[in-house]
Amino acid sequence: MRNMALVRYIRNVTWARKRILHNNYSPRILTKRTAVTNTEPTKPTAVSIGDAVRAEFPVGEEVCGFVVRTVEEVKELHLTAVRLEHLATGADYLHVARDDANNVFSVGFRTTPMDSTGVPHILEHTVLCGSRKYPCRDPFFKMLNRSLSTFMNAMTGSDFTIYPFSTQHPADFKNLMSVYLDAVFRPNLVELDFLQEGWRLEHQDVNDQSSPLVFKGVVFNEMKGVFADSQRLFMQKLQNGLLPSHTYGVVSGGDPITIPQLTWEQLRHFHAYHYHPSNAHFFTYGDQPLAQHLKFINDNYLSSFDRIDPKTEVPEEPSWSQGRSDHVECGVDPMAAAAGGEGGQTSVAVAYKLVNITDSYENFVLHILCELLTSGPNAPFYKSLLEPQLGSGFSPSAGYDGHTRNTSFTIGLQGVRPQDVDQVLSIIDNTFQQVAQEGFPQSRVDAVLHTLELGLKHQTSSFGLALAMTITPLWNLDGDPVEALKINSKINKFRKCLDENPKYLQEKVRQYFLQNNHKYSLTMAPKPGYEEQLQVAEEDLLAQKVSALNEHDKIQIWEQGQTLAHKQEEEEDLSSLPTLRVSDINRTVSPTPVLDLQLAGGVNVQLCQPPTNGITYFSAVLDTQHVPPHLRPLVPLLCGVLTSMGAGHMDFRELDQQADLVTGGLHVDTHTAAHPYHVGHFDQGIVLSSHCLNHNLDHMLDLWSRVFTEVRLNDLDRFTTLVNMIATDLSNSLVYSGHRYAMTSAAASISHMSALQEEWCGLSWLRSMKSLSQKKDLSDTLEQLRQLAALLLNREGMRVAVNTTPDYHTQALSKLESFLSGLHATTTSSATHNNFSSTPVKEEFTLHTRKTHHVFPFPVNFASMALPGVPYLHPDVGALRVLPRLMFRFLHREIREKGGAYGGGAMATPGGPFCFYSYRDPHSTQTLATFSDAVEWVLAGNFSERDVEEAKLGTFQSIDAPVSPGAQGMRRFLAGITDKYFSEHRQLALDTSPQDLITVARTYLSLAPIQGTSLIGPHNEDIAKDGFWNTVHD
Q: Structure pTM?
């Protein structure tokens, strides 16, 4: 699915999933996918927060050591921005005042390494391991269970490091701000923490001095996992090659072969200059008073610093007189969709240096231009590169990138045959030439601008957090973060430029692409034995390190390992850490009023009327219980292509164009939901969703009507292109989401719903798509999809949810009635709220214990063990939901601190399985044993009442997570969870006792009748010889 244009512009950075429980690295700083979109004020106020701020903080006013530089209103985002400067240190401060209770704090630093030792990344980990005020081990992770935060994280980018959090609780905000500020400005930075988080030499068996010395360290193992993903490797090499002269020419996260060059002393020196207030940016957001933030930050931290020159400037990249090129090698991807037959695993791309990131308007124009060039089937490069099936998808990094000093644009393909590389490069040049001659249809420009404007009104529950992420790259490089948010003025200026010069965009194409000599061509191809080559390089480096050791060094390494092991086992005094209490959790929750209706002869409709800012949200579930077994595996494929093939008189290009002009996209996905109280019963289907401005509802429903009644599942070339793209996206997700695939695989043998989820979104689905992408003729598959669509695209078994503003619900229901009446119906058309059933996925399927090792050429493992859980309203569900957070203390210590994995833990999904997992883990069977040890740890009662209280706090971070207006009522609609059920579920978690936790650990984990185990990773000789394991090679 395409990213919204607004998201890609405003955020100025590519985000993906990052550390919620752990921090992560990417050359393009990565975290959760969160759109920067508009949220209306959450509560009415007699005097708006913006008015109050303007009155209290006039420009030039000195407040708590800061001086107010500017106060600006951004009307389109309903916010008031206050820029301040700390007088003593020069620290930059931005406060965004807004009527939003989900307040945000972030402190960031420009971090500009000049080598690939990963010093900013390792420093990010190490500062969170203890500070002057909070000297316990790893207070960051301890706070995860002492807070009701809606987000906690820390991230390293190519030239910055940030530490953001969000919370709805004022006391929690102050607690977390104190912990974060003490961590960054007064960290302990002890050597043992550096060795644990960064890298160290240690005996393979820490208790056996005769065992060989090996490399260990969390970041060392993390980065091995990062670059096991060839797409991430390609992205990194592309940035290094395009912008080589300064900090972008190195790997800020750390190259595993270079990380062991970093010393503890170098880390401390880097902190002294980079983590200084003179190099800092402070950000606060929400409805809490600014003055109290300023006073706390100044009095407790900044007042003890003087101004320095940190010398962290990032210069513009010198322009080249001619283009450059390079080639890199990677591992063979066993799951890659090889377009064009054997050998189609080459990636090729051309990247262009654009303009300084601080030129806000020009980058806005370039963003729109790049969207027009690449986004959707009407884009020139989609037509010229994807549709001829020269590759399986766009190359990594394709599109506009606005996170470095000089922004850039990349275009290319992955899944290319080596003999087609030159043709791809030629097509890129020719496409630019064609666009420069022909320009873009006005309807395409209008569609991109509509997406921007709709995005300004679309509301999310994490607006402030996304805003912090958005402004960081620009602000970090001395750009104006407030100016960048003034989207309406840029849109108006852009429209005026187009009116005055119809060839405005064509001239930009010539300027930035045809006449731009600063372009970098990169190819990447798999090399057999690549992983072994990396392993040999690591072993050679290890041998060099070991050979340089004298006897004193060896004794010191042994003693250091023992000291670290003992430290990791110590019981800690956590009394210094602030905390909330369970009493801070509300016992009652505000209801979400909904209205149940029946329209068009029996279709159940749920109406919710929150303040949606003039947008109507539409969702529909189509039941798949009746789909025959031979078609059921194709349900996710139908979801992937249904709105991308055309409908009625519209081919796929016109349908996409119309969707962009009047909606935020037409989305289809698979759906499963466990029954709230019946064990083994579950709802299955596909869910359709879209949103639009109220006045476009007729148009949006008309598009859905045409998809239902006239979908064009007959274009074999188009279908083949989509299959290749879906297969490529899935293959690319494996290394990044290996723990998710491991959990889905582990659970597949222990419940019918989990088995269906594995078939629809697990490794089975990935392998199915790989197989389809390698077929020369997909006619039979397309015919099966036509059969499946005929079964599903009607009113039978359909239910609908609509969220719209109170003043529009009458019109919305009238339009919905007309839409539903026009759909096909059967004589038995009748929909229930949820069609829960216990139908097995396969008639012959029985629940059973299973161990599966999925062998992939990765240098790290993803492990999981799954056991049957209980329904949402089962009396034991509260204890089972709290139990993973209690176990986190044990699992984090054993898997991450001692084992060196990037992360690990447990999670319990009500109605689904109880799963243990590890992520980017150097161990395999050892970690599986740790999962069992965690159960024994609970059964032994090795925890306190305080531990249980903290586990409840951690659990309620997700239970009581904020809900956006468009998502209100969806828990009821999708899973049958009414407000009454939700309240009962919360009560069960709140009332969990220590004995309850021991009881459920024994009943559901220790004495579980069946369990599933899954390991994704390299060949394991011990497992291969174990007859209880099923080994799968790809």
A: 0.91
